[in-house]
Structure prediction request, 454 residues.
Amino acid sequence: MLIIKYPHMIKYHIMPDLVIKNARIFINDAVQPAEIAVDSGKISKVGKIIGTEEVNRVIDAKGALVLPGAIDIHVHFRDPGMTKKEDWHTGSCAAAAGGVTTVIDHPNTIPPTIDPDSFRKKRKEAKKSIIDYGINAGVTRELKHLRELWELGATAFGEIFMAESTASLNVNDVTLKNSLGIIEELGAVACIHAEDEKTRQEYVRILKGSTEPASYSKSRPPLSEKIAVEKAIKLAGDAKLHFCHISAGESLGIIKKARTGNRKITCEVTPHHLFLSTRDWKRLGTLGKMNPPLRDYQDQQSLWQGLNDGTVDIVASDHAPHTEQEKMTDIWSAPAGVPGVETMMPLMLMAVKRNLITLQKLIEVTSSNPGRLFSLNKGVLAAGYDADMVIAGNAREIRKEKLHSKAGWTPYQGMEGMFPETTISGGEIVYEDNQIIAKRGRGRFIPGNGFTEL
Prediction:
Protein backbone atom coordinates (compact mmCIF):
# COMPACT_ATOMS: atom_id res chain seq x y z
CA MET A 1 0.00 0.00 0.00
CA LEU A 2 1.45 3.34 -1.11
CA ILE A 3 1.91 5.85 1.71
CA ILE A 4 2.62 9.47 0.90
CA LYS A 5 4.00 11.69 3.65
CA TYR A 6 3.38 15.45 3.69
CA PRO A 7 1.89 15.75 0.20
CA HIS A 8 1.84 19.51 -0.45
CA MET A 9 -0.51 19.18 -3.38
CA ILE A 10 -3.42 17.90 -1.22
CA LYS A 11 -5.31 20.48 0.84
CA TYR A 12 -7.93 20.18 3.61
CA HIS A 13 -9.86 22.49 5.96
CA ILE A 14 -8.31 20.96 9.08
CA MET A 15 -5.02 19.11 9.16
CA PRO A 16 -5.98 15.47 9.92
CA ASP A 17 -3.44 12.96 11.16
CA LEU A 18 -4.32 10.61 8.32
CA VAL A 19 -6.40 10.56 5.16
CA ILE A 20 -7.27 7.46 3.15
CA LYS A 21 -7.94 8.47 -0.45
CA ASN A 22 -9.29 6.52 -3.42
CA ALA A 23 -11.17 4.19 -1.08
CA ARG A 24 -14.39 2.32 -1.76
CA ILE A 25 -16.70 1.99 1.24
CA PHE A 26 -20.17 0.62 1.86
CA ILE A 27 -22.41 3.59 2.62
CA ASN A 28 -26.07 4.38 1.94
CA ASP A 29 -26.72 0.80 0.82
CA ALA A 30 -24.04 0.80 -1.86
CA VAL A 31 -20.29 0.68 -2.40
CA GLN A 32 -19.16 4.21 -3.18
CA PRO A 33 -15.86 6.07 -3.62
CA ALA A 34 -14.85 8.09 -0.58
CA GLU A 35 -12.04 9.61 1.42
CA ILE A 36 -11.69 9.05 5.15
CA ALA A 37 -10.03 11.58 7.45
CA VAL A 38 -8.66 10.60 10.86
CA ASP A 39 -7.79 12.92 13.72
CA SER A 40 -6.61 11.94 17.23
CA GLY A 41 -7.45 8.28 16.69
CA LYS A 42 -11.03 8.89 15.53
CA ILE A 43 -12.69 9.27 12.17
CA SER A 44 -13.29 12.97 11.60
CA LYS A 45 -14.91 12.88 8.16
CA VAL A 46 -16.06 10.45 5.50
CA GLY A 47 -16.79 11.62 1.98
CA LYS A 48 -15.19 14.10 -0.36
CA ILE A 49 -12.67 16.07 1.68
CA ILE A 50 -11.81 19.49 0.29
CA GLY A 51 -9.81 22.19 2.08
CA THR A 52 -6.70 24.28 2.28
CA GLU A 53 -4.39 22.79 4.89
CA GLU A 54 -1.77 20.13 4.37
CA VAL A 55 -2.33 16.55 5.48
CA ASN A 56 0.19 14.81 7.71
CA ARG A 57 -0.15 11.41 6.02
CA VAL A 58 -2.09 9.98 3.12
CA ILE A 59 -2.75 6.35 2.23
CA ASP A 60 -3.76 5.70 -1.35
CA ALA A 61 -6.18 2.76 -1.24
CA LYS A 62 -6.06 2.56 -5.06
CA GLY A 63 -9.74 1.71 -5.30
CA ALA A 64 -9.63 -1.06 -2.70
CA LEU A 65 -12.51 -1.77 -0.37
CA VAL A 66 -12.15 -0.19 3.08
CA LEU A 67 -14.13 -1.80 5.93
CA PRO A 68 -14.57 -1.12 9.62
CA GLY A 69 -12.12 -3.22 11.61
CA ALA A 70 -13.71 -6.44 12.84
CA ILE A 71 -14.68 -6.76 16.51
CA ASP A 72 -14.12 -10.37 17.58
CA ILE A 73 -16.14 -10.78 20.76
CA HIS A 74 -14.98 -14.34 21.45
CA VAL A 75 -11.30 -15.18 21.76
CA HIS A 76 -9.24 -17.29 24.15
CA PHE A 77 -5.74 -15.82 24.13
CA ARG A 78 -4.65 -18.33 26.84
CA ASP A 79 -2.80 -15.65 28.80
CA PRO A 80 -2.15 -16.00 31.69
CA GLY A 81 -1.38 -19.63 32.35
CA MET A 82 -1.28 -21.35 28.95
CA THR A 83 1.11 -19.17 27.00
CA LYS A 84 2.71 -22.04 25.07
CA LYS A 85 -0.58 -22.05 23.12
CA GLU A 86 -0.94 -18.26 22.71
CA ASP A 87 -0.31 -14.97 24.51
CA TRP A 88 -1.67 -11.46 24.25
CA HIS A 89 1.04 -10.31 21.87
CA THR A 90 0.91 -13.23 19.42
CA GLY A 91 -2.87 -13.41 19.58
CA SER A 92 -3.25 -9.71 18.88
CA CYS A 93 -0.76 -9.92 16.01
CA ALA A 94 -2.80 -12.75 14.50
CA ALA A 95 -5.93 -10.65 14.92
CA ALA A 96 -4.43 -7.59 13.24
CA ALA A 97 -3.12 -9.68 10.35
CA GLY A 98 -6.66 -10.93 9.81
CA GLY A 99 -8.38 -7.55 9.95
CA VAL A 100 -9.57 -7.76 13.56
CA THR A 101 -8.98 -4.52 15.47
CA THR A 102 -10.72 -5.30 18.77
CA VAL A 103 -11.02 -8.56 20.72
CA ILE A 104 -12.89 -9.64 23.83
CA ASP A 105 -11.10 -12.36 25.77
CA HIS A 106 -13.02 -15.03 27.66
CA PRO A 107 -12.34 -16.12 31.24
CA ASN A 108 -11.14 -19.74 31.09
CA THR A 109 -7.45 -19.01 31.56
CA ILE A 110 -5.19 -20.15 34.43
CA PRO A 111 -6.17 -18.72 36.82
CA PRO A 112 -9.70 -18.20 35.51
CA THR A 113 -10.88 -14.59 35.45
CA ILE A 114 -13.36 -14.94 38.30
CA ASP A 115 -12.23 -12.50 41.01
CA PRO A 116 -10.61 -9.05 41.26
CA ASP A 117 -7.07 -10.41 41.58
CA SER A 118 -7.30 -12.60 38.48
CA PHE A 119 -8.99 -9.80 36.54
CA ARG A 120 -6.19 -7.38 37.39
CA LYS A 121 -3.61 -10.05 36.50
CA LYS A 122 -5.15 -10.53 33.07
CA ARG A 123 -5.27 -6.78 32.52
CA LYS A 124 -1.56 -6.65 33.29
CA GLU A 125 -0.78 -9.46 30.83
CA ALA A 126 -3.02 -7.88 28.19
CA LYS A 127 -0.78 -4.83 28.03
CA LYS A 128 1.23 -6.81 25.45
CA SER A 129 -1.60 -6.42 22.92
CA ILE A 130 -1.15 -4.38 19.75
CA ILE A 131 -4.92 -3.86 19.32
CA ASP A 132 -7.74 -2.77 21.63
CA TYR A 133 -9.31 -5.36 23.90
CA GLY A 134 -12.00 -6.10 26.44
CA ILE A 135 -12.02 -8.81 29.10
CA ASN A 136 -14.99 -10.95 30.11
CA ALA A 137 -15.41 -12.20 33.67
CA GLY A 138 -16.29 -15.75 34.65
CA VAL A 139 -19.13 -17.12 36.74
CA THR A 140 -18.62 -19.80 39.38
CA ARG A 141 -20.97 -21.72 41.64
CA GLU A 142 -20.11 -19.48 44.59
CA LEU A 143 -21.42 -16.39 42.69
CA LYS A 144 -18.74 -14.24 44.26
CA HIS A 145 -17.33 -10.98 42.97
CA LEU A 146 -19.73 -10.36 40.08
CA ARG A 147 -20.41 -6.74 41.04
CA GLU A 148 -16.71 -6.10 41.74
CA LEU A 149 -15.73 -7.55 38.37
CA TRP A 150 -18.34 -5.41 36.64
CA GLU A 151 -16.98 -2.29 38.31
CA LEU A 152 -13.42 -3.29 37.36
CA GLY A 153 -14.45 -3.08 33.72
CA ALA A 154 -15.57 -6.55 32.63
CA THR A 155 -17.15 -6.34 29.18
CA ALA A 156 -19.67 -9.08 29.96
CA PHE A 157 -19.98 -12.33 31.93
CA GLY A 158 -19.04 -15.61 30.32
CA GLU A 159 -18.72 -17.85 28.60
CA ILE A 160 -21.00 -19.28 31.25
CA PHE A 161 -20.48 -22.97 30.57
CA MET A 162 -23.57 -25.15 30.89
CA ALA A 163 -21.45 -28.24 30.15
CA GLU A 164 -17.87 -29.42 30.63
CA SER A 165 -15.29 -27.69 28.45
CA THR A 166 -11.76 -26.27 28.64
CA ALA A 167 -10.82 -25.23 32.23
CA SER A 168 -14.01 -26.75 33.72
CA LEU A 169 -15.94 -23.59 34.59
CA ASN A 170 -19.31 -25.25 34.03
CA VAL A 171 -22.20 -24.34 36.35
CA ASN A 172 -25.39 -26.11 37.39
CA ASP A 173 -28.94 -24.88 36.81
CA VAL A 174 -29.26 -23.20 40.20
CA THR A 175 -26.04 -21.26 39.72
CA LEU A 176 -27.08 -20.30 36.20
CA LYS A 177 -30.44 -18.95 37.36
CA ASN A 178 -28.96 -17.03 40.29
CA SER A 179 -26.11 -15.59 38.23
CA LEU A 180 -28.53 -14.42 35.54
CA GLY A 181 -30.50 -12.58 38.21
CA ILE A 182 -27.40 -10.69 39.32
CA ILE A 183 -26.30 -10.02 35.74
CA GLU A 184 -29.75 -8.62 34.95
CA GLU A 185 -29.54 -6.32 37.98
CA LEU A 186 -26.15 -5.04 36.81
CA GLY A 187 -27.41 -4.42 33.28
CA ALA A 188 -24.69 -6.66 31.85
CA VAL A 189 -24.73 -9.33 29.14
CA ALA A 190 -24.54 -13.05 29.94
CA CYS A 191 -22.58 -15.00 27.30
CA ILE A 192 -23.85 -18.59 27.31
CA HIS A 193 -22.06 -21.74 26.18
CA ALA A 194 -25.19 -23.77 25.49
CA GLU A 195 -24.63 -27.50 25.84
CA ASP A 196 -26.53 -29.59 28.36
CA GLU A 197 -24.21 -31.47 30.71
CA LYS A 198 -26.60 -34.31 31.53
CA THR A 199 -27.21 -35.02 27.85
CA ARG A 200 -23.48 -34.84 27.14
CA GLN A 201 -22.70 -37.38 29.86
CA GLU A 202 -25.33 -39.81 28.57
CA TYR A 203 -24.00 -39.75 25.01
CA VAL A 204 -20.35 -39.91 26.08
CA ARG A 205 -21.10 -43.03 28.11
CA ILE A 206 -22.53 -44.70 25.01
CA LEU A 207 -19.80 -43.60 22.60
CA LYS A 208 -16.67 -43.56 24.73
CA GLY A 209 -15.46 -46.88 23.37
CA SER A 210 -15.25 -45.57 19.82
CA THR A 211 -11.88 -44.41 18.51
CA GLU A 212 -13.34 -42.63 15.48
CA PRO A 213 -12.94 -38.83 15.69
CA ALA A 214 -16.42 -38.41 14.19
CA SER A 215 -17.85 -40.01 17.34
CA TYR A 216 -17.15 -36.75 19.12
CA SER A 217 -19.86 -34.96 17.14
CA LYS A 218 -22.32 -37.66 18.17
CA SER A 219 -21.28 -37.35 21.83
CA ARG A 220 -22.37 -33.70 21.96
CA PRO A 221 -25.39 -33.80 19.64
CA PRO A 222 -27.59 -30.89 18.51
CA LEU A 223 -30.10 -32.12 21.10
CA SER A 224 -27.67 -31.10 23.85
CA GLU A 225 -27.48 -27.56 22.47
CA LYS A 226 -31.26 -27.36 21.98
CA ILE A 227 -31.97 -28.37 25.59
CA ALA A 228 -29.43 -25.87 26.91
CA VAL A 229 -30.77 -22.99 24.79
CA GLU A 230 -34.32 -23.68 25.96
CA LYS A 231 -33.19 -23.90 29.57
CA ALA A 232 -31.18 -20.68 29.50
CA ILE A 233 -34.07 -18.75 27.96
CA LYS A 234 -36.45 -20.14 30.58
CA LEU A 235 -34.14 -19.23 33.47
CA ALA A 236 -33.05 -15.83 32.18
CA GLY A 237 -35.94 -13.61 33.20
CA ASP A 238 -35.16 -10.23 31.64
CA ALA A 239 -31.39 -10.72 31.60
CA LYS A 240 -29.60 -9.97 28.34
CA LEU A 241 -28.58 -13.32 26.85
CA HIS A 242 -25.93 -13.79 24.21
CA PHE A 243 -25.53 -17.35 22.95
CA CYS A 244 -21.98 -18.19 21.93
CA HIS A 245 -21.13 -20.39 18.92
CA ILE A 246 -24.60 -21.68 18.04
CA SER A 247 -24.04 -24.70 15.82
CA ALA A 248 -27.42 -26.26 15.02
CA GLY A 249 -30.44 -25.13 13.04
CA GLU A 250 -32.96 -26.18 15.67
CA SER A 251 -31.26 -23.95 18.24
CA LEU A 252 -31.56 -20.97 15.89
CA GLY A 253 -35.27 -21.69 15.52
CA ILE A 254 -35.75 -21.59 19.29
CA ILE A 255 -33.85 -18.30 19.57
CA LYS A 256 -35.84 -16.75 16.74
CA LYS A 257 -39.13 -17.76 18.34
CA ALA A 258 -38.08 -16.48 21.78
CA ARG A 259 -37.36 -13.04 20.33
CA THR A 260 -40.99 -12.60 19.34
CA GLY A 261 -41.68 -11.93 23.01
CA ASN A 262 -39.33 -8.92 22.95
CA ARG A 263 -36.66 -10.85 24.80
CA LYS A 264 -33.09 -9.48 24.91
CA ILE A 265 -31.41 -12.35 23.08
CA THR A 266 -28.53 -12.33 20.61
CA CYS A 267 -26.41 -15.12 19.18
CA GLU A 268 -23.20 -15.73 17.30
CA VAL A 269 -21.89 -18.36 14.93
CA THR A 270 -18.27 -19.23 14.21
CA PRO A 271 -16.27 -19.68 11.01
CA HIS A 272 -15.54 -23.29 11.91
CA HIS A 273 -19.24 -24.12 11.96
CA LEU A 274 -19.85 -22.11 8.77
CA PHE A 275 -16.94 -23.44 6.72
CA LEU A 276 -16.38 -26.91 8.24
CA SER A 277 -18.71 -29.83 8.85
CA THR A 278 -18.67 -33.50 9.85
CA ARG A 279 -17.38 -34.15 6.32
CA ASP A 280 -14.07 -32.67 7.50
CA TRP A 281 -13.42 -35.21 10.28
CA LYS A 282 -11.61 -37.49 7.82
CA ARG A 283 -9.25 -34.68 6.76
CA LEU A 284 -8.70 -33.11 10.18
CA GLY A 285 -8.86 -36.01 12.61
CA THR A 286 -8.44 -34.83 16.19
CA LEU A 287 -7.44 -31.35 14.97
CA GLY A 288 -11.14 -30.87 14.25
CA LYS A 289 -12.24 -31.24 17.87
CA MET A 290 -14.04 -28.24 19.33
CA ASN A 291 -17.03 -27.53 21.56
CA PRO A 292 -19.72 -27.56 20.29
CA PRO A 293 -18.43 -30.04 17.72
CA LEU A 294 -18.55 -30.13 13.95
CA ARG A 295 -22.11 -30.48 12.66
CA ASP A 296 -23.57 -32.07 9.55
CA TYR A 297 -24.17 -30.32 6.25
CA GLN A 298 -27.83 -29.58 7.03
CA ASP A 299 -26.99 -27.74 10.24
CA GLN A 300 -24.17 -25.92 8.46
CA GLN A 301 -26.60 -24.64 5.83
CA SER A 302 -29.04 -23.59 8.56
CA LEU A 303 -26.35 -21.30 9.98
CA TRP A 304 -25.87 -19.59 6.63
CA GLN A 305 -29.63 -19.15 6.35
CA GLY A 306 -29.70 -17.71 9.87
CA LEU A 307 -26.99 -15.24 8.90
CA ASN A 308 -28.93 -14.06 5.89
CA ASP A 309 -32.35 -13.80 7.54
CA GLY A 310 -31.06 -11.88 10.58
CA THR A 311 -31.42 -14.62 13.20
CA VAL A 312 -27.64 -14.64 13.67
CA ASP A 313 -26.37 -11.33 15.01
CA ILE A 314 -22.61 -11.85 15.08
CA VAL A 315 -19.81 -13.92 13.61
CA ALA A 316 -17.04 -14.49 16.17
CA SER A 317 -13.97 -16.68 15.86
CA ASP A 318 -13.98 -18.57 19.18
CA HIS A 319 -10.21 -18.53 18.66
CA ALA A 320 -9.17 -21.36 20.99
CA PRO A 321 -5.61 -22.36 20.07
CA HIS A 322 -3.76 -25.51 21.05
CA THR A 323 -0.53 -26.66 19.48
CA GLU A 324 -0.64 -29.36 16.84
CA GLN A 325 1.33 -31.66 19.12
CA GLU A 326 -1.25 -31.28 21.90
CA LYS A 327 -4.04 -32.21 19.51
CA MET A 328 -2.31 -35.34 18.23
CA THR A 329 -3.79 -37.88 20.61
CA ASP A 330 -7.05 -39.83 20.80
CA ILE A 331 -10.30 -37.94 20.27
CA TRP A 332 -11.38 -38.15 23.92
CA SER A 333 -8.06 -36.86 25.29
CA ALA A 334 -7.34 -34.16 22.70
CA PRO A 335 -8.07 -30.61 23.87
CA ALA A 336 -11.08 -28.92 22.27
CA GLY A 337 -10.63 -25.78 20.20
CA VAL A 338 -9.19 -24.44 16.96
CA PRO A 339 -7.36 -21.22 16.05
CA GLY A 340 -9.39 -18.77 13.98
CA VAL A 341 -8.93 -15.07 14.78
CA GLU A 342 -6.62 -14.50 11.79
CA THR A 343 -8.72 -16.38 9.25
CA MET A 344 -12.23 -15.24 10.25
CA MET A 345 -12.44 -12.08 8.13
CA PRO A 346 -10.52 -13.49 5.14
CA LEU A 347 -12.95 -16.42 4.98
CA MET A 348 -15.99 -14.17 5.40
CA LEU A 349 -14.80 -11.81 2.67
CA MET A 350 -14.51 -14.81 0.36
CA ALA A 351 -18.09 -15.68 1.33
CA VAL A 352 -19.12 -12.22 0.10
CA LYS A 353 -17.20 -12.76 -3.14
CA ARG A 354 -19.01 -16.08 -3.62
CA ASN A 355 -22.41 -14.48 -2.90
CA LEU A 356 -23.03 -16.51 0.25
CA ILE A 357 -23.74 -13.26 2.13
CA THR A 358 -23.85 -9.59 1.20
CA LEU A 359 -21.16 -7.08 2.05
CA GLN A 360 -23.69 -5.19 4.16
CA LYS A 361 -24.40 -8.33 6.20
CA LEU A 362 -20.68 -8.99 6.67
CA ILE A 363 -20.16 -5.51 8.10
CA GLU A 364 -23.16 -5.93 10.39
CA VAL A 365 -22.15 -9.28 11.86
CA THR A 366 -18.42 -8.59 12.27
CA SER A 367 -18.37 -4.89 13.16
CA SER A 368 -21.51 -2.85 13.79
CA ASN A 369 -23.55 -5.47 15.67
CA PRO A 370 -20.77 -6.49 18.11
CA GLY A 371 -19.97 -2.82 18.64
CA ARG A 372 -23.60 -2.09 19.46
CA LEU A 373 -24.02 -5.12 21.75
CA PHE A 374 -21.23 -3.98 24.05
CA SER A 375 -21.66 -0.20 23.58
CA LEU A 376 -18.28 0.19 21.88
CA ASN A 377 -17.47 3.33 19.92
CA LYS A 378 -16.36 1.09 17.10
CA GLY A 379 -17.55 -0.85 14.09
CA VAL A 380 -18.84 2.00 11.90
CA LEU A 381 -17.10 4.14 9.28
CA ALA A 382 -18.54 7.47 10.42
CA ALA A 383 -17.33 10.64 12.10
CA GLY A 384 -16.74 10.24 15.82
CA TYR A 385 -16.06 6.50 15.80
CA ASP A 386 -12.67 4.98 16.56
CA ALA A 387 -10.50 4.92 13.45
CA ASP A 388 -10.29 1.13 13.22
CA MET A 389 -10.24 0.14 9.56
CA VAL A 390 -9.13 -2.52 7.13
CA ILE A 391 -8.04 -2.03 3.53
CA ALA A 392 -8.93 -5.28 1.80
CA GLY A 393 -6.37 -7.20 -0.21
CA ASN A 394 -6.57 -9.95 -2.79
CA ALA A 395 -7.51 -13.57 -2.28
CA ARG A 396 -4.75 -16.03 -1.47
CA GLU A 397 -4.39 -19.55 -0.20
CA ILE A 398 -4.45 -19.99 3.57
CA ARG A 399 -1.15 -21.54 4.66
CA LYS A 400 -0.23 -22.29 8.25
CA GLU A 401 3.34 -21.04 7.82
CA LYS A 402 2.00 -17.56 6.96
CA LEU A 403 -0.09 -17.22 10.12
CA HIS A 404 0.87 -15.59 13.42
CA SER A 405 -0.74 -17.71 16.15
CA LYS A 406 1.46 -19.88 18.35
CA ALA A 407 -0.85 -22.77 17.47
CA GLY A 408 1.15 -23.23 14.27
CA TRP A 409 -1.68 -24.79 12.27
CA THR A 410 -5.11 -24.01 10.85
CA PRO A 411 -8.17 -26.14 10.05
CA TYR A 412 -8.58 -24.04 6.88
CA GLN A 413 -5.28 -25.08 5.29
CA GLY A 414 -5.53 -24.77 1.51
CA MET A 415 -8.75 -22.75 1.47
CA GLU A 416 -8.88 -19.26 0.00
CA GLY A 417 -9.11 -16.09 2.09
CA MET A 418 -9.04 -12.36 1.36
CA PHE A 419 -6.47 -11.08 3.83
CA PRO A 420 -6.06 -7.35 4.52
CA GLU A 421 -3.52 -5.21 2.74
CA THR A 422 -3.50 -2.80 5.68
CA THR A 423 -5.01 -2.84 9.17
CA ILE A 424 -5.46 0.42 11.06
CA SER A 425 -6.18 0.63 14.79
CA GLY A 426 -6.98 3.98 16.37
CA GLY A 427 -5.67 5.75 13.29
CA GLU A 428 -2.32 3.93 13.45
CA ILE A 429 -1.17 1.37 10.89
CA VAL A 430 -0.56 -1.89 12.75
CA TYR A 431 -0.29 -4.31 9.82
CA GLU A 432 0.79 -3.66 6.25
CA ASP A 433 2.15 -5.63 3.31
CA ASN A 434 2.22 -8.89 5.28
CA GLN A 435 4.14 -7.31 8.17
CA ILE A 436 3.20 -6.46 11.76
CA ILE A 437 4.53 -2.93 12.25
CA ALA A 438 2.84 -1.96 15.53
CA LYS A 439 4.69 -1.55 18.78
CA ARG A 440 4.08 -4.22 21.38
CA GLY A 441 1.56 -2.99 23.94
CA ARG A 442 0.00 -0.13 21.95
CA GLY A 443 -3.51 -1.58 22.35
CA ARG A 444 -5.96 -0.08 24.84
CA PHE A 445 -8.14 -1.71 27.48
CA ILE A 446 -11.77 -0.90 26.61
CA PRO A 447 -13.75 -1.27 29.85
CA GLY A 448 -17.36 -2.37 30.03
CA ASN A 449 -20.33 -0.24 31.01
CA GLY A 450 -19.98 -0.87 34.74
CA PHE A 451 -16.43 0.50 34.98
CA THR A 452 -15.90 2.73 38.02
CA GLU A 453 -12.21 2.24 38.82
CA LEU A 454 -10.11 5.39 38.45
